Each structure stands twice: as C-alpha cells, then as structure tokens.
Amino acid sequence: MTMVFYNYIIGGSFLVSLFGSVLLFILRDDSYREKKIEKGSRKFEIQTDTVTGTETGKCSPENDSGDDIIIVGAGVAGAALAHTLGKDGRRVRVIERDLTEPDRIVGELLQPGGYLKLAELGLEDCVEEIDAQRVLGYALFKDGRNTKLSYPLKKFHADVAGRSFHNGRFIRRMREKAATLPNVRLEEGTVRGVQYKTKDGQELRAYAPLTIVCDGCFSNLRRSLCNPKVDVPSCFVGLVLENCKLPFPNHGHVILADPSPILFYLISSTEVHCLLDVPGKKVPSLANGEMANYLKTMVATQVPPELCEAFIAAVDKGNIRTMPNRSMPADPHQTLGALLMGDAFNMRHPLTGGGMTVALSDIVVLWDLLRPLHDLHDAGSLAKYLESFYTLRKPVASTINTLAGALYKVFSASPDQASLGGDFSTGPVALLSGLNPCPLSLVLHFFAVAIYGIGLLLLPFPSLGCMLIGARLISVYTMVQRFPLICSASGIIFPIIKAEGVRQMFFPATVPAVYRAPPVD
User: How do residues 176-190 score in pLDDT, each as one tens digit?
Assistant: First the structure.
C-alpha cells in the first residue's frame, strides 16, 4: 500500500504565508547586504600570513610564483576545481594537508543533479572503477509501511542517476585526474596564509592573484573570508553492514524513526552504510558501551526486518563512528583575490545528500565566469566577477539548502496529524535530486501540497476536527501559541531563506552583478 509520505508538507504550512513575508524580507535583506558588502571589500589578509595582492590588488612581480590560482584543499570541491581550471590552461597549485585517501562517513551520495554537473565538468569517469552504485530514488519507511519514490529520469540519458560510493575513493579519482594535467601541481602541506609547511617540514611561500579556499567544514581560513554562523543540529552515528540486501535495490532507504531519521544506502556492491541521526551535539558514549546498548534497544526495533540481523552484527563488530552535522549559510565578505567554496563556505544538513551537488554547481558557475578573464592580475575585473559569483550561485544552492533544512525538521518524528499530506512525488524528488533546483518550484510545490493536504482532510465529508487541522495549515501566525510545531517549521525555513538572500534567491535578475560584461581585450 502506497504510504502518504509527504510528511514534510508541514513545510507547506510555513510557505502558505511565505509570499506575505517576502517583500519585508527583501527590503530588510537588501539594505543589510549593501552595507555589508561595502564594509567587507578588503584584500585577503590573515594576520601576517596569507595569499594576497598588494594594496592595488596587483600581485607583486618579484613575489609571483608563476601560479594563476592557488587552491587550498583537495577534497571534492578542491580537486574538481583544480582539474576544471587547469584544463582551461590556468596554472594551478593545490595545497592539501593530507593527500592520502580520506576516510569519512559522509559525502557518499551524489544526487543525479550533481552527476549532471560532474559530467559538465568532464569528470563523470571519476565515479567509475570505485565500485560506485547507481541510485534511482528513495524508499521511505514509517510505522511498518513503506513507499518508493523514484527520481524523474525519463528525459535524461541512461547514464544519469545518483551514485553512492566510498567518499575517499571518489576524491582519490578526482585528484588523480587533476594531477594528469601538466599545469596543475598537487602538494601536501599545512597552509598558514601565504606560508605553508611541506610534509618534510620545509617552510614555503606561495603567491597568486586568486586564492580559492576549499579546506572543508573545519576550515581555519574561513573567518577571514565570511561571517561563519555554524549550527550543529545533530550528529551522525555511522556503521557499515556487510553482505545484506536492501529491500528496494538501487534506492536510498530513509526510516522515519523516533526521534529522527535513519539512512541506509550502498557504498559498494557488498557494503551498506547506515547513518543514524542523533539530535543535539552529544551522542551516547562509545567507550562504556552506552552507544551499543542504545543502538540495540532504541534503534534496532525500528530497522526494517530485512536489515535487522546485519544491523545487530555491525553493532557487535564495534566499528561505530560519529560526526557532528553542521549547517552554515553562505555569508561572504567581499575580499580581493580570494574566494571560499565547498563546505568551508556553505553547509546544509547532510540528510538529503545535497552538499556535493551544490559544490559542483558552484564550480560550473565560477568556471563560466572566469573564462573571459585572461588576466587574473586585473584585480578590478576579478573583483566584479567574484561578486557576480555570489549572486549567480544562489538559485541552485539556496533551493537545496532550504529543502535540506526543512526536510530534516519534518523527517524527525512528530505525532502531529497536520504534518501528513498527499502522495505527490515527482516535484519534490526533482528538487531533492538537484534535477530542478529552482526556488520558485520549491515555493509552488509547497503551496500545491498544502492545498492538496487540506483537500484530503475535507474529503469525502468535512468534520470539525479536519477543518481545524486545515485551518492550521493556512493560518500559521494566528495560532502561534497553540500550535508551536507548525511555527517551528516556519522558524527553520525563514531564517535559511533570509540568510541565503531573498533577492538573490528569488529575484537574481534584479541584482546588477548578474550583468557583468566581459572585459575588453
């Protein structure tokens, strides 16, 4: 039986009132950002050490190491960016703290929209030869019921689908591909501004007209380039299940458990990764056995029967890992000669697997912007194009960010009947997969689902209780005290939208930076 799964249309309740608040946000948002840009326009300086230009923005010839671009970090964003800019003939130096294969428990799902961006960058072969698994959609489970939601892939080439894999293998493949270009250098070192220390302890300096910082969620250069507001809503507990089959092949599995979701997905042909979301910043202790007991008594009972035995075996094996889940809106300082990208710049809850899609989309935007700029030493032109980047990335990035925040909240268990809705799938799955990352589609879909949900409540015969629930879907602010759950959803989405920038997200054509003309040769 198909389950009514648009549990997340609790988000519809907040969006019913969205347009009523948009104009206020635009006015407040724009005035704030204009002041911030004026204040933040400065060259990249981190105390005494940095990759920077002179006061005029021109890199001193005597200090120029011959690099056009320095990239700090060689993760997904850094490695992909190095290959993309390098194949255009740019001289790229990449400085990475550790060039051995990473071992992480996130960054393992590439949405179909992210795969399209990967192909646009010419990196689609990086998901080959790493035992990556095709992902065709999601299977959702709640209270013994389940439903399958497939990606809308009919109009795309047969190769287009999601991919799940070991994060480290994917990064290794991209680093290897970037290193094949003669004008790209990958070096292992710890960056401290312009100074960096190599693996053998040698202190070196590097200069370039453009520095792109992609040093990940633990970035130590972030504070000089943005206003970081990092939130940690929850932690992931990860373990690997071996030699078991998922109930729905080639689908990610989401269990809407109590108190928050559990994910199962293949990372190789023989391994299923389980990620359990634990709300808050603390998790049960691993050392004293509290974690194992929690997993067996509180979690195992909510795992689908087909996976329960393998889940218990993985807990007994003891290879349990944890990591905090971070979210951070993009709030950059306009900084001469420097740019943040990847998780160093913008994070969202990893539940929806949108991080790599956003990073690769950002790289496509930056790649297109830098193409007409033959001389990156022209600090004035470079600054204008980097300003355009922050606007042009918004529609895709902010849609995925907003949806990630909303879905995390509403995928957490709730007894509120008003959170139930209709069984639409194509629209929200297209948004989630990155195939249609359009802010307007996000808004219209939530309106449609909210109206559909009210219709289901009132048919075939409306009752007083159903009419009250329908009223709750429409009237958010007049029932704040009585129905705080609905307002809590609004409280997540509105701050995300405001932080992302309402004008840039919904009305990018009104931002002058969109219309930068190519410089005259």
Answer: 999 999 999 999 988
